[in-house]
Amino acid sequence: MLNKCILYVVCCQLTIMVGQVLADVPMRPAFDHVVCSNNSRYCAFISPTEGVKGFKIEGGRNNIEPTYTIAGWYLKAYLSDDGQKLIVVQPMISPAHVKDEFAVRVWVGGTLRKSIYMHEILGKRRPIKTSGGNYVWCTEAGFDSDRRFVLKLNDGSKYEIKF
What we know:
- Helices cover 17% and strands 43% of the residues.
- It is built from two helices and 14 strands.
């Protein structure tokens, strides 16, 4: 019986240690990627070395018209159907930067129009989960069928970004 208890405790300890290791896996390095509007007429190429380059696609991939450039690299970005609004969402925020790091940025025509911080979106609510030491506050984001940009928060509520 004592051996079974010791084995059980050791297994529990290993499970906890493995879980902690998996939760603290670092994010992969910045990489090139493309995001497109829901209607696929506009896209943005996002690169850690070149920044963000917006472009319009007319009549197939052979006719691409540049629209704007933005400095910086962003993992989560969404593009409006008119190609003018690029919404950047930072779904994970370090606890040390909750008050000074943006949660959402709104770019219009390549110009930063609005930075929204996590405490502005959440207000008095606390739907924050800790994941690998970071706060995860947003589970889904995107333009809805009415062309509004909506964030779904961890508590299931929604937050609309006004333009």
